[in-house]
Amino acid sequence: MKVLSLVVAGKINNFLHCAPQHHRSLYPYIILFYFIFYYFRCFYIAQSYAAAKKFKEAIALYERSLVYIKDAIEGYKNLKGAKHSKEVRHFVNHLLL
């Protein structure tokens, strides 16, 4: 697992520490959606920097967005064996594929 993933997982675990016990099964989804959200965020900020001709910053953000989406795809592959609701599968497939 990448260092970035470990840091993110630590932040999310701290945030979710107060969650009720019956919601613990949603942790992998929350981590997955975190990576997807930050991928989109980095990607669109990178596009803004590229439009402003700040190419060094844009490239750095594009590279970071690649890290986030690779982590999201890896997390999705780990979830494939588990039972998912139809809505969650549709949403994740729409975002990642």
Task: Give the tags.
97 residues; mainly alpha; 4 helices; 77% helix
SSE topology sketch:
Layout: H1 3-16, H2 27-51, H3 55-79, H4 86-96
Helix pairs in contact: 2-3
Please tell me about this protein's structure.
The chain is mainly alpha-helical and 97 residues long. The chain has one domain. The protein is built from 4 helices and no strands. The protein is elongated, with a radius of gyration of 15 Å. The model has no long low-confidence stretch (mean pLDDT 76).
Radius of gyration: 15 Å
Overall spatial form: elongated
Domains, number: 1
What is the percent of helical residues?
A: over 70%
Low-pLDDT windows of residues: none
Number of helices: 4
Q: Kindly report how far apart the N and C termini lie.
A: 22 Å
Rounded mean pLDDT is: 76
What proportion strand? under 5%
Overall SS class:
mainly alpha
Quick take:
The protein has 97 residues and is mostly helical. The protein has helices at residues 3-16, 27-51, 55-79, 86-96.
